[in-house]
Amino acid sequence: MDFLSLQGIHHTYFTKNSATTALSDISLEIKEGEFISFLGPSGCGKTTLLSIIAGLVEPTAGTVTLEGTDVNNASKKIGYMLQQDYLFPWKTIEENILIGFKIEGSLDNSKRDYALTLLEKMGLKGVEKQYPKQLSGGMRQRVALVRTLATEPKLLMLDEPFSALDYQTKLKLEDHVSNTLKSLGKTAILVTHDIGEAIAMSDRIFLFSSRPGTIHQTFEMPDEIRDATPFHARNHELYSSIFQTVWKELESLESTDTY
């Protein structure tokens, strides 16, 4: 049994005067511990599919199961990280990373210690009593990741979490996120427009066609890229040829995109 399974996902948005099909016949399986990227032209339904997997949107047709359970009954196993950090500015960093436990009413000393250990693992030791405005954008995104990971989700959803950052910070954060997820054995799905980011971070890349979104092609990264940190993957001799291959496929899709 696959860790995450999507079968025949189809989704149409209906308005009073129109119907727009965002996704058509999406089927895929993801193994536990994999890092997957969704890549494709703008408007191809990547974020819609992420929302369906997270149980936030009900598909028009098809099923999504996580460890054999419908995602609607497995929402506590899924963590979601967005482009914006959405930290509460009036709360300290410690209070922010513990918010999930407080909402659940499950906060205790062991969970606090675990969250603070994650904070240290992300290179943020000593910021517990500071407020979000005192941290850089990259540091706030790391705090947001700690907040997401603290409740120990089985599946992590990453919706362009690095896109608002400058390039140098983005590269550093890619390494932080990749190393942390690998050390914890987490399964992750990344939505991105950045080909290099997808190659450097992923085990597999699903390339989506233009609307309605379908899986146009799947790229499996070689072990040399998968085993390297994202920074070193970008400098590997195989990186350039993989980039060109994915780029050409994406270009061919975008050249036929009428939206």
Outline the structure in words.
The chain has 259 residues and is an alpha/beta fold. It has two domains: 4-74 and 154-254, Rossmann fold; 90-152, no CATH class. Helices cover 37% and strands 24% of the residues. It is built from ten helices and ten strands. It has helices spanning 46-53, 93-97, 99-104, 109-121, 137-150, 167-184, 195-201, 223-226, 230-234, 239-254, and strands spanning 4-14, 19-30, 35-39, 61-66, 69-70, 78-81, 155-159, 187-191, 204-208, 215-220. The strands form two sheets. It has a six-stranded mixed sheet, sandwiched between helices. β7, α6 (167-184) and β8 form a beta-alpha-beta unit. The mean pLDDT is 89.
In short:
Helix content is 37%, strand content 24%.
Task: Summarize the topology.
Layout: E1 4-14, E2 19-30, E3 35-39, H1 46-53, E4 61-66, E5 69-70, E6 78-81, H2 93-97, H3 99-104, H4 109-121, H5 137-150, E7 155-159, H6 167-184, E8 187-191, H7 195-201, E9 204-208, E10 215-220, H8 223-226, H9 230-234, H10 239-254
Parallel strand pairs: 3-8, 3-9, 6-7, 7-8
Antiparallel strand pairs: 1-2, 1-4, 4-5, 9-10
